[in-house]
Amino acid sequence: MDNHLTTDFDEACFLVDLSNVVRNRRLGEPGARSLKRLRLLVEAAKSLARDPDVKLYLVADRSLRHGGRREFGDLGDIRQLGSWVRRGLVEELADADDRLLELCELTGIPVITGDRFRGARGERPWLQGNTDDFLEPVPGPAGTVRLIPVDMGVAHASAISMKLEEDALKKQGLLDARRRPRFDLVSRNWRCEDRRCTLYDTTKGSAALLPRVRRSSPTCEMHGGVLVDDGPRTATVQLKLLLDGELKGRFTLENGTKVPVGRAPGPGGIALHGLIPADRTNGLSRVHVDLRISDGVVHVLDRSRYGTTRWRSAAGRGGPGRWRRLGTAEERFGGGDELQLVDGVVLARSGRRFPTELAQEWQRRGPLPPDAADVTRMH
Ligand SMILES: [Zn+2]
What we know:
Elements: E1 14-17, H1 18-22, H2 36-49, E2 56-61, H3 62-66, H4 76-86, E3 90-93, H5 96-107, E4 111-112, E5 134-139, E6 145-149, H6 162-165, H7 168-178, H8 183-186, E7 188-191, E8 212-214, E9 217-219, E10 228-232, E11 236-243, E12 246-254, E13 257-262, E14 270-271, E15 289-294, E16 297-302, E17 310-313, E18 324-325, E19 331-332, E20 337-342, E21 345-349, H9 355-365
This protein binds zinc ion.
């Protein structure tokens, strides 16, 4: 279990609203609070990400561990939670909701929760009509759990924070300020000026947190001070190689590079020879595709001899889209997209997006129409 937990956003595939999951009586066994629900969720996350090593970033309210202890059917759950918090595998705060939304906004990593965050929509207008960033755990067959994408719907104005309704201009101001994700923040390392503080120390690996944003400055959660810029953080893109849906390899691409992928692409490339059995390399060219990562956007060029490469989006609301032929020019290879090189051999990007891609997406979304608050479409 522990090897599926991380508080390093570079590794995390999903953010988890832990209190919400542990308290969800529809999942697994009866009882008010149970950590078994998290174990079922890990299985669901593995299968959705098609990654047996999938990593989750857990955020919990302090009250999960400290309030209502008798609600746990198994007291071992409380000890387990305490151990995870001490080892930096669970981020525990007074208000987990706010932190989850902040992390999602900063990193583009999807959130697993049953909450619709109706009360947060004034401050975070990107929640309105969102269909990309939230997954809900629901009961699956034979006591399992499934994850389904959530249409957050558009909350009625009366459900949105009262203080913002009072002042439409202020609301507009917030919209503008919040529409740009802070990739300036996620692309740097940060250091707390308190010498004993290691919360943001990236040399410590999985315990390095992403700073909290207070009055638009990165701030230490524990000491409250503004954090010091500690140099650039290497921006990377994660790539998985799947054979018939099974994970065969994992690669990291760095910004500013061009990486050929194929049977035997030569130096600097990703060689698939040896990763997939010889009888499945039929039709696989020596260099099959070029991946170019520039300004945080990944581009793909089909270089296969017979033009066999297909593209699809797998992150959509209705599940994976239809395979489409790549053109002869470079195309975008976005977060959640997949490339099929030859039958059954697929390169997949995780659902999380690169900070620059996130920024572009938000710009495309634009402001909500003025009558949006009249529509109620909750699930
Ligand atoms: Zn600190």
